[in-house]
Every structure is written in C-alpha cells, then in structure tokens.
Amino acid sequence: MTNLKNFQAIWRPKIDQQLQTDLIAISDDAEFAQMMCYAVLNGGKRLRPLLTLAVLSSFNVSVTPNLLKLATAVEWVHSYSLVHDDLPAMDNDLWRRGQPSVHAKFGESSAILVGDALLTGAFQVVSEANALAANVQKVSDEQVITIIRQLSRYAGANGMVIGQIHDMQNHGHQKSDVTYDWLLNDVYAPKTAALISYATDIGGKLSQEMASTLVHPKTQYDLYQFGYDFGLAFQIQDDIDDFDQDNDEAVDSLPHLVGMAAAKRTRNDLLADARQRLTNIAQREASFDRQLLDEFLDLIGESV
Amino acid sequence: MTNLKNFQAIWRPKIDQQLQTDLIAISDDAEFAQMMCYAVLNGGKRLRPLLTLAVLSSFNVSVTPNLLKLATAVEWVHSYSLVHDDLPAMDNDLWRRGQPSVHAKFGESSAILVGDALLTGAFQVVSEANALAANVQKVSDEQVITIIRQLSRYAGANGMVIGQIHDMQNHGHQKSDVTYDWLLNDVYAPKTAALISYATDIGGKLSQEMASTLVHPKTQYDLYQFGYDFGLAFQIQDDIDDFDQDNDEAVDSLPHLVGMAAAKRTRNDLLADARQRLTNIAQREASFDRQLLDEFLDLIGESV
C-alpha cells in the first residue's frame, strides 16, 4: 500500500464522520438535515480536506480534533457548489456520482436552499472548530479569521462564483473568442484551482502556527502554488477524461481548443511545476517529508 | 424631525456608500459587480444595519469605520435571501421594489450566482472590517469570530434557510395543519426575526466591547429579545399590509389564520414586550438613551 492509499484509508472515514456529525448538529429539522447529508455524504473523494491534512502530515503536525474540523469546512463549500452547479438553470445535471442530483431527488427549491445552508454552514464550522480543542492546542483567533477570509475570497465573487459564470459562457459555443489564457486563468483557475489552493494554503498556515517547524516565508507561497498547479492539472485531466461528453454538450474545453496532445503537455508542465514546489520546500524545511504530496500528483495523468 | 428620521438621514447614505465600496472592491469583473450592485443598491430601507448602529448610538458609542463596515454585512445576507427567494423555483417574483427582480433582469443562473456571491461576501466583509481601524479601536478577534458564528447561525440551516423552507410549505395551502405556534415559531421567527435579532444582538456585543458602559449581562438578552419581538411584529405588519395579495397567492398568513383583529393583538403584544425590554435596559444601564429604539417600534402599526 502506498503512503497515500494508507493515508486515505485512515483519514477519509474520519473526514466523513466529522462532516456527518456537523451536518446533523447544524439543523434541528431532521428532514432538512437528511437533504444536506444526501448532498455531502455521497461518496466524494474528499480531495480538498485530505490535501490540508496531507500538508499538516508532511510537516509532522498531528491532526487534532479542531484541525480536522477546520479542514472539513472546504468540503461544505465544494458540496454546495456541486448542488448549485447541477441546477436546471445551470448545468442541468440529473445525476451526480451515480445517484440523482439533489434537485432531481428533492426538487429545485430545496436544492437551492440546501446549497445556501451548506455555504453558510461552512463558516459556522470554521468559527466553531476550536470548541473541539479542549485538551489540545487551539488555533489562534487571528488564524481562524484569516481562514474565514481566505475561504470567502476563494469561494466568492473573484473565486468559484466567477469561475462558474465563465464556465457557463463556455457552454454551447456562446463565446466566440475562447483563448488558452482565458480558459486557464478565467475558468479553470477560479472554478477549480481556487479551492484546492485554499486547501494547501491553510495546511501551510496551520502547520506554521501549530508546529513552528516551517520557517521560510517562501514555503507558504510554494504550498499555495502547489495547490494551484495541482488544481489546474486536475481540471485539465477531467477535461481529457470527459472529451467525448464535452463534445456532445458543446463545451470548449482545453483539449478541444488546443488538441489532446497540447492539453496533455500543459497538464504535464503544471505537474512538473508542482513537483518543483515540493523540491523547493524540501530544500528549505528540514521537517518536511514530500512523499505524500508527491503521490497526490501521481493521481493525475497517464499512470492512473 | 424625529430622532430616527435624523438618524436615518445621516446613516442610510453612509451604509449605502459602504455597501457600494465593498461590492465594487469584491469583484474584478465589472459586469458581475454591476449585477451585485443592482441586487443590493435598489432602495432598501437598511433596517438591519440601522438597528445595529442605533444600538451603538443608544449607548453613546461612536460609529467608527470598522463598526460601520461590520454593521453592513447583514445587508449582504438579507439581499442574497431576497435574490434567491424571488427565483422561479421559489416565490417566482418578477418584481422587487418596483424594478425587475435580479433573475428577471439578468437571468436565472446569474441570479443564483449573484446570491451565492453576496452570501459568501458577507463573511469576507466581517473578516476584513478591522482593516478600516487604522486610527480607531479594533474590534477584538474573539468578537469578530463571535459575529461570524452568529451570522452563520441566524442565516443558515436553523435560521433564514429553514424559515424559507417552511414559508414555501405555507404557499398554496400545501400544509393542512398550520397553527399559530408553527407560523410564529417555525416561519416568522427564522425567516424574519432571526436576522433582525442578530442586528440588535451584535449592536449590544459591540457596545459592550467598545465602550464598556453596558454592564449587566441581562441587557444583552434584552437587546436580542427586542430585535426578536420587533422582527416578529414587523413580519405580522407585513402580512396585515399584504392581506389581499396573500389571499390571491393562497398563503396562510397570521391574519388569515386567526383573523385581522387577533393578528393585530399579537403584533401589539410583541411591540409592548419590546418596549418593556427597553425599560428593563434603561433601568439598569445609566448610559442608555432609549428614544431612538422606541422610535423604531413606532414604525410599526396603526400610526404609520
């Protein structure tokens, strides 16, 4: 078993347990709580919380209950975005991970409100994470506010939301002047890379605060950029895998725009840059073990 | 000119200016920023931010730039809720304050995303408010986190969101067992009173922190309850005013359920309780001037 497989086997169930506990606690209405659970606990890979925990683990920081809870907030945001993206007025997807999407199962108005409640709940989760720090080090209030600011920035009008606006312009050949730079910087970056770079970014910030073993300021930037490169490569891989489906749906994805070979080159360049970030960090930080994050990069590409 | 009219004349333009500044700053996309501005800057009364500022003023706390910004975050949440409530899948309102609603003007998908961005942005506004505290007292980090927690609770799955779920059940006579208690506690309280009590609640918390003139713990509860009573009375008045329209739309509002006279009695009882809260506070807190908050109560009822 690889490090990553082992890591996933340990932490994915714990992430799911934390999500379930908080989802049930946040609503007194059992029926509504069940809708929220349906939207979130449907077999996702938990890539974003796992990345935060992986960064902590790479710096040998132990994942205390408050850190676990903090790391799961991004999954509330990711889940809300899937529920809203699936709506009839948006991508109109009736299926999500092999099951009826939230609006297909519970109706459109409930899906809008489930998404709203998940987005709102993400900030409640962050603001209440330290309640689980009875016998462990608390995350400082200053850091909690920084995390809330980062989450709202990466998710909001300059982040995921504008990414979805642009992604929809990219459906049905509505936009005639789609360029390589526009696709990468104005669609993929805000829609996908933003939340993934948030996950590695706060992993770095929390490692610095909790362990004080991460010293060089440039390391923070490398961790953010690792997530950004990984996020873009992840999205390009998704488009490579969905090439035929996007063709049917008239979506101008990168492989359609520049050809499959060029899209793979871009993906590989991004993965190479992400690996270089890990090299940079390893050269500076004595406490850093890069192996787990290297294996995240192995998830993408030909070897999968 | 009454105290309140004077207060509104001073602070409503400042609230609007703060909202506009932050709405434009939060989005690099001019077209999307314009949609957000359309949703928010359309002539609202700014009741909720004004209530927070009125509580501060009642305790003679000066409204510094960071406090003004903090007070406006609730208006982002209120505005998002109107945009989403108006959607075709929800109340399907094509008009809002005499202008086309956001989805009528910009399309349904844009309206969903404008709402999402406003909700997300509210938390960014709170997390960044102290950036405006260069030469004035900062709000403590602990207090900022408390405000974020309260805002997410009152807006989320146990607050406004579940209020809207219940309100929709109350359309078209879908629910056969509508009771007085259910309407007040499960519809009006979370849908309307929650955010209004949030506004008075944080007004009290901020007064306590910034001026240290507010000493008795029960005063905090009275301020919260003042907002709660006021919010319920405000909603009942709205239903009294919209009686004919609700009749047409088959909404079981309080006047339909118990009759107009009984609905007015409930409203008056709530206003009387709210006035009693102000009496309680005035008896305890030497620095408290109740006149402005009394005039908020005068906004509701026969005298309007």
UniProtKB/TrEMBL annotation, chains A, B:
Keyword annotations of the record: Isoprene biosynthesis, Magnesium, Metal-binding, Transferase
Keyword Magnesium: yes
SUPFAM superfamilies: Terpenoid synthases
Keyword rRNA-binding among UniProt keywords: no
Top-rank lineage group of the source organism: Bacteria
Record EC number: 2.5.1.10
GO biological process: isoprenoid biosynthetic process
Single Gene Ontology MF annotation: metal ion binding
Cofactor list: Mg(2+)
TM annotation in the entry: none
Family from the record: Belongs to the FPP/GGPP synthase family.
Protein name per the record: Geranylgeranyl pyrophosphate synthase
Protein source organism: Leuconostoc citreum (strain KM20)
